[in-house]
């Protein structure tokens, strides 16, 4: 599958909402006074994900790579089963240059998936949530992923290979280098070569953008593993398991629930990946 399979009406055009905003601050030094300082901050705007004309979710995100974000979200959240089922992706910006800046991403999906999505939305109406993304019961959390394939290359992963992409991940975070507040999700080959890096103020958004980028390039399912600059939350592990990612590495530690999901899926989970050491949780 290639990018040509996705008729993107506006999503691959330059987006007028800038991901970073310039402003003036004050740099304070203990005992040395105050100096004016030009800084940049990461933009964080509401992004509505609209499937077949109905808004499904509004996420606070960095307004960049939003077509990839919508496609990756649809795949990693099980809205669709295959990337080619996301059609006519269109990114719209609203209130550019005002305090009410926002974006809408429209995606057309097959009727059978849309019917299932509507049932999911209807089931949440009027409920008092348990505090986890509007879900009202443990059963609805979907904590039991299917077992992943165990490719031969994964058994050969060692600390040096897992740490290799982290050596250059910071250099590839171009937005974070300027603003200092963005997460990154990267794709690494079985040899540890870092090929793709996507950024966002939200760690889940960065991961979905990465999955969307791979989908648009026809690379879903290729050999490799995910690296991230965030902690390992259960939601990230669940998304990776749904996308059949056999290994996942982050600079921070997982929670017990994240490890439980990884173990059930048969995913190799690496944490505290800070050269020269990394932990593999077994």
Estimate what percentage of residues fall within beta strands: 25-35%
CATH superfamily of the largest domain: Cytidine Deaminase, domain 2
Please describe the biggest sheet, giving its number of strands, its sense, and whether it closes into a barrel: 6 strands, mixed
CATH architecture of the largest domain: 3-Layer(aba) Sandwich
Overview of this protein structure:
The chain has about 280 residues and is an alpha/beta fold. The chain folds into 2 domains: about 120 residues, Roll (Ubiquitin-like (UB roll)); about 140 residues, Cytidine Deaminase, domain 2 (3-Layer(aba) Sandwich), CATH 3.40.140. Helix content is about 30%, strand content about 30%. It is built from 7 helices and 12 strands. A hairpin with a 2-residue loop joins strand 3 and strand 4. Helix 1 packs across helix 5 and helix 6 packs parallel to helix 7. The longest helix is centred in the middle third of the chain and has 14 residues. The chain starts with 19 loop residues before the first strand and ends with a strand. About 10% of the residues have low confidence.
């Amino acid at each position: 599958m290639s990018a040509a399979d996705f008729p993107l009406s506006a999503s691959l055009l330059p987006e007028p909402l800038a991901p970073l905003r310039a402003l003036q601050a004050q740099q304070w030094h203990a005992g040395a006074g105050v100096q004016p300082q030009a800084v940049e901050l990461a933009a964080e705007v509401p992004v509505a994900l609209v499937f077949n004309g109905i808004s499904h979710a509004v996420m606070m995100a960095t307004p960049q790579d939003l077509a990839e974000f919508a496609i990756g979200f649809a795949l990693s959240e099980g809205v669709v089963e295959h990337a080619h089922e996301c059609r006519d992706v269109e990114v719209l910006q609203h209130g550019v240059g005002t305090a009410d800046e926002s974006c809408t991403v429209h995606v057309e999906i097959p009727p059978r998936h849309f019917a299932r999505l509507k049932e999911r939305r209807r089931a949440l109406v009027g409920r008092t949530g348990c505090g986890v993304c509007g879900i009202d019961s443990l059963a609805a959390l979907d904590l039991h992923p299917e077992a992943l394939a165990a490719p031969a290359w994964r058994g050969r992963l060692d600390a040096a290979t897992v740490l290799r992409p982290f050596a250059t991940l910071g250099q590839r975070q171009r937005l974070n280098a300027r603003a200092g507040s963005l997460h990154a999700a990267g794709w690494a080959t079985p040899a540890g070569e870092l090929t793709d890096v996507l950024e966002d103020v939200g760690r889940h958004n960065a991961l979905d953008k990465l999955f969307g980028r791979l989908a648009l390039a026809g690379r879903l399912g290729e050999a490799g593993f995910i690296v991230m600059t965030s902690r390992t939350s259960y939601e990230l592990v669940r998304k990776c398991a749904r996308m059949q990612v056999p290994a996942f590495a982050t600079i921070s530690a997982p929670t017990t629930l994240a490890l439980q999901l990884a173990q059930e899926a048969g995913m190799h989970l690496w944490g505290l990946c800070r050269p020269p050491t990394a932990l593999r949780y077994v």
